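Forwarding these from the shared drive since the link keeps breaking.
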Amino acid sequence: MSLLSSSPILADSKKLAKKKSFKQPLKSIVKSPLKWAGGKRKLIIDIEKLIPASSSRSRLIEPFVGGGSVFLNMQFANYFLVDSNPDLIALFTHIKNNHTQFLKVAERLFSIENNQASQYYELRREFNATPHSLRRSVLFLYLNRHGYNGLCRYNSKGIYNVPFGRYKKPYFPSTEIAYFAQRAVDAALVAGDFSLAFDAALPSDIIYCDPPYTPINETSSFTAYSGQGFLYRDQQRLVKCALNAQQKGITSIVSNHDLPVTRELYSKADKIISLNVARSISCKGQVRKPCAELIAIYKGC
């Protein structure tokens, strides 16, 4: 029996899975409160086409929730959101529990005085040192909006080390935070390994996976956003989870770069779809070209 079977987290997720809710259809693509490298906002329409028609009565599970763009733009009865980055989940939890307080505290950091390198690095040092959960979360939002190119990166010791971004006037996402809080009422949030999401899955669920991508080359890997790299053996472990879920009647959808190595990795998927998506990870604008991505689909039996 899974260690998660008696967990309050799993109990909460199963309770949410049975809960009925109704939401008005979205009229446009909703943005995340965070800048997030590799976010799926540009692929929402493509991903939505792959979701079974009955999904509005089901639960969406995301083992790698990231910035939350898929969650924010998909219409499900409820959601089970997991990420290995505890700072990300803590931020989302504070927004869910009391977004009014969070907004009030966080907005103070978005000032002219704080939009300079010296103050950014001072606040980054505070973030890495503070044990206070709310303070760390508002600093996480500040660093995300003021740091370079929406990156979220830690060194091997778990120290956040993204450099100053030098933006003229960083945007304070008050509207996005309020909307996230509204949607998160129907979501369970968990910090941990992606396997926890698969352990919690029920036959009526849909699983969407957006793992750290297999690098295109040796210099393009940005997988250490939770303090630990996401290695090829982790990619293999994810595929094993998807195949096991498939045998239980659960459909899993996985995104990644479209490369020979990933084509081989997902060779047992029922279907692979290739897409071209513009990415802007590179600091050189002239090399920010569309790159091929794929979506692998493991249909529940």
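-- next protein --
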Amino acid sequence: MNILVADDELAIRNLVAELLEDEGHVVTLAEDGEDALKKFKQEWHEIVFSDIRMPKMTGIELLEEIKKLTELTQFIIMTSHASVDNSIAALKKGAFDYILKPFEDLDVVVDAANRAMANLSAVREQQYLLNTLSRQNEELGTLNKKFRELAIRDGLTGLFNHRHGENRLLDEVDRARKFKRELSLLFIDLDNFKFFNDKHGHLVGDEVLHSLGKLMSGATRDSDTVARWGGEEFIIIAPETDEHQACNLAETIRKQVAEFAFPHADQQPLGFVSLSIGVATMSDGIDNAEELLRLADKAVYAAKDSGRNRTVFCRSELEMDDVQPVQ
């Protein structure tokens, strides 16, 4: 172990060095505090033996400077009986121990070094355990985050799942009602998807759903919520979005899907993959999630009954409008 011995008395330096070298330690000698600090900066030492009274820099000043560099080094003050109070002050500043000069028993030096080594080992072990615990907590936090994501994500499309979509809809409706803000809901149904699966198989159908999820995510804002509602059904919750903006978003998505090169798209009944989309917006007569969802769902059925591949806006039970395609 590397040990630095700082004392302005040559006889004390050499005596301490001899005792420690006999125990197998590598000892560096310093004639005062400044010399000790310079040598410590050149090479790290696990233990420092330092006289408390030295020219240029006292033992306590040396202790303070070394503690700025590292908390691991074990600092042992060597002092006379007359300076015991100063030694206690050094302990409060982070010194490991102090020994009195002149040494009544030379074993006191070796004993202090052994206890310092044992303490250093304990500190290192504690640091290792803390680092391990911190790393494990970080890994656990990452895993928990992944688990939370898995709990709210649809495994196939990567979109939010039905439960999270339902919760977000309740939250956004509550916020829109409370702060009198605009909110729109898009209910999206993939046309003739059973026909596609029966003809080309579920694996290819899953590929279509996955690509559709990416298209919808790319067309929406970070503040929007895109969720797989079930099977080939999806919803988009669009806060701060009025009727006109919501219908434009629906038409943009519908047009992108119709033009996308899905596998076997040309073999669909319409000659391409298409969507039927129902749109509803919160208004004076629609102030809860259930009603907003019911009207958007009603609009989807109207879109399908009208030939599919279209957007229908449902303003109320009796008022629905086909939306003009985005040019």
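The radius of gyration is 38 Å. The domain at 2-126 is CATH 3.40.50.2300 (Rossmann fold).

- D.
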